[in-house]
Specification:
With 386 residues, the protein is an alpha/beta fold. It has two domains: 3-27 and 268-381, Lyase, Ornithine Decarboxylase, Chain A, domain 1, CATH 2.40.37; 30-267, Alanine racemase (TIM Barrel). It is built from eleven helices and 18 strands. The strands form three sheets. Strands 1, 2, 11, 12, 13, 15, 17 and 18 form an eight-stranded mixed sheet that branches. The longest helix has 16 residues, at 195-210. The structure holds pyridoxal-5'-phosphate.
């Protein structure tokens, strides 16, 4: 996506002038940097950004400008992108399964930390990764473990994470080979239950004890929630506080340095989506120019968003009574439908625009060109709320 030089006041300021036919995402650098600051001042440890949530260059650069100094990367492409945009950043290669050529890129680009959840992948690292990287930093390997914990929208443990017993074995081997021994977990995305982190921190202590190893760092993953639904404003401060308190209680004087790697919670509220109403079919079903093959790919999994405002093409807000409607995307696939029904003003008309808040995570990057739609562009805005 190209980035123009223009910075608009807000999405409505843009639509009045441009009346776009294709969907547009707006990035507010101010909102993004403010959220970066919230993590940097609130989280009791080192804050890194999970690049997969939104790898746009403008996102990476603004997070780095806010002071984010580390990045969770999963592929050679993400590694090279961060080295190019933020040359001095710490790279954490936290995809626990890697091809040999991918490990080679990690070594060449001076990755500082690797996570692993199996003995076979650990052996691949042992054979290829020097104890000290090219920047003179001792290389860290973190054992990634999982617990059967509810709380998140979906369970990341279904794919990655060793059991406690296996993680204990992995951690002991990391330490005996001379790498910096650490632990990591990921409670699952959009995790609104702070108790999930608490259970994991207790398990980390048991694993460290079992391996008779003092862990240097504990990476508590991403999974921090964003503001999806008007009625539910999640409290990051409460989660930060709990993580700090429990780590102290559980580890005492042996407390490891904490690391987090949020994706969603850093970027979701830094972008809003402008989508146009293509048709209101027989006054009933609303068809948009964007849908689940576009920027709204994760909605069927994550549930609908309701921070939506409607505007006429001249920018006048639609203020009719909220009416629940079935909303479809533009493709001819029948699953291209937003989950449930969406409350939209009764006076909504063909040609109107919707501004959907909270669209910065897993949107740009999962947009497809299925059926010839998805010509998504990116614009900058001072504010996302008109
Ligand atoms: C996806 C991912 C993240 C980011 O998750 P969010 O829910 O977006 O915060 C962090 N760490 C790892 C290892 C991941 O795979």
């Amino acid at each position: 996506m190209g980035i123009t030089q223009t910075i608009w006041a807000d999405p409505v300021d843009y639509l009045r002038v441009m009346t776009p036919q294709d969907p547009v995402l707006f990035l507010s650098p101010a909102a993004l940097q403010a959220q970066g600051q919230r993590f940097l001042t609130g989280f009791p440890g080192f804050v890194t950004y999970a690049v997969k949530a939104n790898p746009e260059e403008a996102v990476i650069i603004n997070l780095a400008a806010a002071g984010i100094g580390g990045f969770d990367v999963a592929s050679p492409e993400e590694i090279r992108r961060i080295r190019r945009l933020v040359p001095g950043a710490a790279l954490h290669f936290n995809n626990p399964v890697r091809a040999r050529h991918e490990i080679a890129v990690g070594v060449a680009e001076n990755v500082h930390s690797y996570s692993v959840d199996s003995l076979s992948e650990l052996d691949k690292l042992f054979a290829r990764v020097p104890l000290v990287n090219g920047l003179g930093q001792p290389v860290e390997i973190t054992a990634r473990f999982k617990l059967p914990v509810a709380g998140a929208v979906y369970d990341f443990g279904a794919k990655f994470g060793a059991t406690e017993d296996l993680a204990t074995e992995i951690l002991a081997r990391i330490a005996s080979r001379g790498y910096v021994p650490s632990l990591t977990f990921h409670p699952g995305t959009q995790c609104t239950d702070p108790a999930a982190w608490e259970a994991y921190i207790h398990a980390a202590r048991r694993i460290a004890e079992g391996a008779e190893t003092r862990i240097a760092r504990l990476n508590v993953g991403g999974g921090f929630p964003s503001h999806r639904i008007r009625a539910e404003m999640p409290s990051l401060a409460a989660i930060f506080h709990l993580i700090g308190r429990v780590t102290h209680e559980v580890f005492g004087d042996d407390a490891p340095t904490l690391v987090c790697e949020p994706g969603r919670a850093l970027v979701a509220d830094a972008m809003a989506l402008l989508t146009r109403v293509k048709a209101v079919r027989d006054g009933l079903h609303v068809f948009l120019n964007d849908g689940i093959y576009g920027a709204m790919a994760e909605l069927p999994l994550m549930g609908a968003l309701d921070r939506i405002a409607a505007f006429a093409p001249d920018g006048t807000p639609r203020t009719g009574e909220p009416q629940r409607r079935v909303v479809f995307g533009p493709t001819c696939d029948s699953v291209d439908r937003l989950p449930g029904e969406v409350a939209l003003p009764a006076d909504l008309q063909e040609g109107d625009y919707l501004v959907v808040q909270g669209m910065g995570a897993y949107s740009v990057v999962t947009n497809t060109r299925f059926n010839g739609f998805g010509a998504l562009s990116l614009e900058m805005a001072l504010s996302l709320e008109p």
